[in-house]
Amino acid sequence: MIKVGDSLPASTLMEFSEVEGGGCSLGPNPVDVTKATAGKTIALFGLPGAFTPTCSAKHVPGYMEKQAELKAAGVDEIWCVSVNDAFVMGAWARDQKSAGKVRMLADGDAAFAKATGLTLDLTGKGLGLRSNRYSMLVKDGKVASLNIEGPGKFEVSDAATLLSQAKG
After folding, report:
1. Catalytic residue among 55, 88, 106, 163
2. Quick one: which H or E segment has residue 154?
3. Facing residues of 106 across strands?
4. Does the active-site annotation cover 55?
5. CA–CA separation, 80 and 103 (whole Å)
6. CA-to-CA distance for 30 and 8, rounded, in angstroms?
7. Whole-model pTM?
């Protein structure tokens, strides 16, 4: 399992773009994790699924609320990563009105979750292999802090906890 001090795994996430331009085509676009985190501070949080109750009602809204404070604390970007496809993450971004605040990144085949060791097996609940709920502060591609939730919990991966760590 990934730990503080480790580099994020070389992997590719997908991001749905609503508009063409800036080198991005309309629709799903690859995000090279190594390149996208180089020289930046990223508030990254992972969760089991788009449109799920805790994720939609608490996790994403918390980061949306704390976005300006996170930026003031030195965070360049906020990433939400989930084992969903880019089309679902794009629809969820529209639903959450996260454009310009939180990048909604798809880990469609759970490659990132597997590479970090932060998987959650929800096969018995009809959801298959998912991402565990967690947050991490990433500085220049390395994990500076890591907060992993226990099963069914939402206590340490919230925006307020990561904000205190970014300020620290």
Report:
1. 55
2. none
3. 14, 82
4. yes
5. 6
6. 16
7. 0.93
Return left, alpha or beta for 117; rule: phi > 0 is left, psi -120 to 50 is alpha, else beta.
Answer: left
User: Is 137:8 a contact under the CB 8 Å cutoff?
Assistant: no
Could you read off the pLDDT of 66-124 as tens digits, one per residue?
999 999 999 999 999 999 999 999 999 999 999 999 999 999 999 999 999 999 888 88
Of 7, 81, 93, nearest to 46 by C-alpha is 81
CA–CA separation, 15 vs 2, rounded Å?
23
Compute CA distances 42 → 31, 37, 51, 77, whole Å.
Answer: 14, 7, 23, 5
The correct answer on CATH 3.40.30.10 for the domain covering 12-16+28-167 is yes
- Residue pair 77/42 in contact (Cβ under 8 Å)? The answer is yes
Both tokens of 99, joined, read 């454009």
Residue 13 CA, distance from chain mean position: 10
